[in-house]
Design brief:
- The strands form 2 sheets. Strands 2-1-8-7-5-4 form a 6-stranded mixed sheet. Strands 3-6 form a two-stranded antiparallel ribbon.
- The chain is globular.
- It is α+β, with helices and mostly antiparallel strands.
- The protein has helices spanning 5-24, 28-33, 56-70, 130-137; strands at 35-43, 51-54, 71-73, 76-85, 88-96, 99-100, 108-117, 120-127.
- It is built from 4 helices and 8 strands.
- InterPro entries: NTF2-like_dom_sf (IPR032710), SnoaL-like (IPR037401).
- It comes from Nakamurella leprariae.
- This is Nuclear transport factor 2 family protein.
- Residues 27-123 form the SnoaL-like domain.
Amino acid sequence: MSSTEPESDTRAFLTGWFRRLTESGFDGAVFAAGLADDIVWTATGHSPISGTCHGRAEYLERIYRPLAERLERWPRPEVLRIMVDGDWGLVEFSGVGGLGRNGTDYSMRYCWLMRVADGAVREVIGYYDQGKVAELFA
């Protein structure tokens, strides 16, 4: 295995996954399919979804489900840049068209630092607009 293989695998995975997420309008099944069973997901800051989840099931229950219950429409990702270093990748993207059931505009800029291995996202440190999340949960 060459030293560039993990980097090209990471870039290919992230590019393909985000393309599918964009094309599907952020379909939950497409999203969940990219997450490893043992993922560690950290939502940074101090919002209703902040914290670290260990495992896909915990992430889906503690972060994804509460968001899904409050969103009329998930924001569609528009990738601004992907940077890769080995099995780590950083994806900066705008989530556009997001709408809360309470009328909140849920469009925002995200930055996810992700470790990819064996064809799945294994770790995420997610940065996002905590104010928008707080408004969604208000």
